[in-house]
Specification:
The complex is a heterodimer of chains A (about 250) and B (about 475).
Chain A lengths: L4 E10 L2 E11 L4 E5 L6 H9 L5 E9 L2 E2 L5 H6 L2 E4 L6 E5 H15 L7 H14 L4 H4 L2 E2 L5 H15 L3 E5 L7 H12 L7 E6 L3 H5 L4 E6 L2 E6 L1 H10 L2 H5 L1
Parallel strand pairs in A: 3-10, 3-11, 6-9, 9-10
Antiparallel strand pairs in A: 1-2, 1-4, 4-5, 7-8, 11-12
Helix pairs in contact in A: 3-6, 6-7
Chain B lengths: L35 H10 L4 H16 L38 H9 L7 H5 L1 E7 L2 E5 L2 H6 L3 E4 H7 L1 H7 L10 H9 L2 E7 L8 E7 L9 E7 L4 E9 L7 E3 L2 E6 L4 E9 L11 E11 L5 E8 L4 E4 L2 E4 L5 E10 L4 E4 L2 E4 L5 E10 L4 E10 L7 E10 L5 E10 L5 E10 L2 H9 L4 H12 L1 H4 L4 H14 L6
Classes of the chains: A alpha/beta (about 250), B alpha/beta (about 475).
């Protein structure tokens, strides 16, 4: 599908301060886009707005997702329609086990989309299979959601949820931060394995390193709330080499 | 963005009180008001022996001299004790032999409440002693229990059938003059449940009683007495709902537990009485005295409660740890919404040596409610090597509610250890957003987070109760995050 996600002339303010200015972005089904920019350029604002977080003022523009006006949907409706945000800072929820959380989320998803809940045995089989790819143990699945997890463990967990929920649009917000070299490879490869013709990805990142393992179709340079330049993977390599200086001066 | 969203309002979630219906059954009222004649009327109605009438009258006389307690945080208009009925029973003249003899409307009420007074209960391992208003109308599986020598019957029946046991234990844990509401109950108690587990017997099923306040304007004065003889075990469940009405209803129950040497009693409550509407109108006043006596060495009493109902809750299920090596537990979830007021907690009185107690309290407040944990841990001079651990956590869902933790700790023994931990927290927007981003709607998200918060206590409930309790928590908190 063309223009699976279509952002048109989007401007967003927080507390009267303009964070995103006249942004345009089209992602077709099956494409992987990378949004690269320095700290504080509005990357997380964009991912939050796509996911439906409150507290942002959309002063102009439209977002359509799968042909529908995305902005009229609640965060949970967006999630159930296939938008998944891998959080930069996943929250802790004491007393709720990892596995129970994922089961609850998956059931909400399936119910919304008119599917019966998975049988407990099938669910268990599926989650164990995915967990193994990420090097996640049974014991870890029974732990309380993100409580006392290291930064890397939290990111692995986000990747596990991504693999279980199989979204049609995954937004990865700085998923590489907080990961050591080994964990980074595992998570990146696991995420890369979810790529397919039926789903798209928007990778929001500061560095190029994630893009070496999940190669994007299109790279956008995102500075001060706007896309300054778009191109192929070579753009990411250039940023890796020379930084954002050239674009700052543009 | 919020401009474009169709925001759900609180009203979209609010269900009228789920069990707010009233069955029309003629009640056999005593005249309104309270005096010696009423006490005699009640006693006479129940064919009680003279000693029990005298006991009631002594309680009544003492009650007249007592003052309603005002030390707790709850506030309510003065109660006119003369403007209430003190006895109401479903109209019955003959003794009930089987369920076929029970008023069909009564059975219908039970069905609405989802109380299965049927054989399936046996399969589920639950025996139900259903208390409708004040008189027990049907007791299931009494015969099966009898084979083990277990007595499980209405209090009135026990007074007639087992007078020696009643006389031996009644008022020995909670004296008839213990406090204002206990004295009132002692004078006018109508019915309740009685359990006796003989020495060495493990009760093979969970014993459960469902209470229901029904007749308009009738205070409920239940009396429960559970005795676990040497080395016996019993798990007792108490759950309740009440129909919707406008005027306040007074409920002053008394529950006494006695655990003899090596015995264990587990007492679980799910309380879902009408809490009043969202403006604070109506609702039950729940002034309950519950106390367990670990009378023998190595005995154990455990209280678990899930309190979501009542306009006012004033209850402190307590343990008196008299026997050496005895232990007491209190696990509590108290939810307050709208204008509900909760002042609840426990008392752990350590008297024997090597006694231990554990308190886990989870308070959840939302709306304009107030939720106070008030607890006493008292270690007496001779209670060597005793231990207490207390953890009180409060979760706040809105800006207008309040949560307080008021621990009283008295340790008079240098070899004993008392620990107290307390936290208070709010459900954060980030937690809600995270859950919603994974597809849960706001209600589901709140429910998930709250259930996680309460997990330590929910785990202590018997399985069938835990499921009901989780459902109750969700229902109680619907539309509560603003």
């Amino acid at each position: 599908m063309k223009n699976f996600l279509k952002i048109k002339n989007l401007s967003i303010s927080v507390d009267d301060k303009c964070i995103i200015k006249d942004l345009n972005l089209n992602i077709n089904k099956g494409e992987v886009h990378a949004l690269m920019g320095p700290n504080g350029c509005g990357k997380s604002t964009l991912s939050n707005v796509l996911a439906g977080k409150e507290g942002y003022d959309i002063t102009n523009g439209k977002i359509s997702f799968s042909g529908e006006n995305l902005l009229k949907f609640s965060p949970n409706e967006r999630a159930n329609k296939g938008i998944f945000l891998a959080f930069q800072y996943p929250v802790e929820i004491p007393g709720v086990t990892n596995i129970n959380f994922i089961k609850t989320a998956l059931e909400s998803n399936r119910q919304y989309n008119g599917l019966d809940p998975l049988k407990p045995g099938d669910f268990l089989k599926l989650i164990k299979e995915k967990a193994e790819l990420l090097g996640i143990s049974d014991e870890y699945l029974k732990r309380q959601l993100n409580v006392g997890f290291s930064g890397g463990e939290k990111k692995r967990n986000e990747a596990l949820q991504l693999m279980m929920l199989e979204p049609s649009l995954a937004i990865l917000d700085e998923t590489d931060s907080g990961l050591d070299v080994d964990a980074f490879k595992i998570v990146a490869d696991a995420v890369n394995s979810t790529r397919g013709k039926k789903n798209s990805m928007l990778i929001i990142t500061h560095y190029q390193r994630l893009l070496e393992r999940i190669q994007p179709d299109i790279v956008h340079v995102f500075i001060n709330g706007s896309i300054i330049e778009s191109g192929g993977p070579e753009l990411a390599e250039e940023i890796d080499k020379n930084g954002y200086e050239r674009f700052n001066n543009a | 963005m919020s401009d474009n969203q169709e925001k759900l309002t609180e009203n979209d979630f609010k269900d009228p009180y789920e069990y707010g219906f009233e069955t029309e059954i003629d009640s056999d009222f005593a005249p309104k008001g309270l005096n010696e004649e009423i006490v005699k009327f009640i006693s006479n109605k129940k064919n009680e022996p003279k000693w029990l009438l005298d006991w009631r009258l002594a309680a009544y006389k003492k009650w007249l001299t007592m003052k309603e307690p005002n030390w707790s945080s709850v506030r309510y208009p003065a109660i006119d004790y003369q403007d209430s009925y003190y006895y109401a029973a479903p109209k019955k003249t003959e003794k009930i032999e089987s369920l076929d003899d029970v008023d069909p409307k009564l059975l219908e009420t039970y069905n609405k409440l989802g109380i299965p007074l049927k054989e399936q209960e046996w399969l589920a391992g639950v025996a139900v002693d259903a208390v409708f208003d004040s008189v027990s109308v049907g007791t299931t599986f009494k015969e099966k229990l009898k084979e083990d020598g277990i007595i499980f019957c209405s209090f009135s029946e026990a007074v007639i059938e087992y007078p020696d046991l009643i006389r031996k234990y009644l008022g020995t844990v909670i004296p008839r003059t213990d406090n204002y509401f206990a004295a009132l109950n002692s004078a006018v108690f109508s019915d309740g449940s009685f359990v006796y587990i003989p020495p060495g017997v493990k009760c093979p099923m969970e014993l459960s009683t469902y209470f229901r306040i029904n007749a308009a304007g009738t205070g409920q004065f239940e009396r429960t007495l559970v005795i676990a003889d040497k080395d016996s075990y019993v798990s007792y469940l108490e759950g309740c709902t009440a129909p919707m009405r406008d005027e306040h209803q007074l409920h002053a129950a008394v529950v006494e537990l006695v655990a003899l040497e090596g015995a264990e009693i587990k007492y679980s409550t799910v309380q879902n009485w009408y809490p009043g509407d969202e403006n604070g109108k109506g609702g039950v006043y729940n002034f309950v005295t519950k106390r367990g006596d670990c009378r023998g060495n190595n005995s154990k009493i455990s209280w678990t409660q899930v309190e979501t109902g009542s306009a006012i809750t004033w209850k402190y299920p307590s343990c008196v740890l008299k026997g050496d090596n005895s232990s007491g537990e209190f696990y509590s979830i108290a939810v307050s919404n709208n204008f509900q007021q909760v002042d609840s907690g426990t008392k752990m009185i350590h008297l024997g040596k090597n006694t231990s107690s554990r308190i886990i309290s989870k308070g959840i407040s939302t709306g304009n409610s107030s939720n106070t944990y008030r607890g006493l841990v008292s270690i007496h001079p001779k209670s060597n090597n005793s231990r207490n651990f207390t953890q009180c956590d409060s979760l706040l869902l809105t800006d207008n509610c309040s949560a307080n933790t008021i621990p009283y700790i008295q340790s008079k023994n240098i070899n004993s250890i008392v620990e107290h931990e307390a936290t208070s927290s709010k459900i954060s927007d980030d937690q809600l957003f995270y859950c919603r981003q994974r597809g849960l709607d706001e209600e589901e998200a709140v429910s998930l987070i709250v259930n996680g918060f309460c997990k330590d206590v929910l785990q202590k409930l018997p399985m069938e109760f835990a499921v009901e309790a989780q459902r109750l928590l969700s229902v109680s908190l619907e539309g509560s995050v603003g």
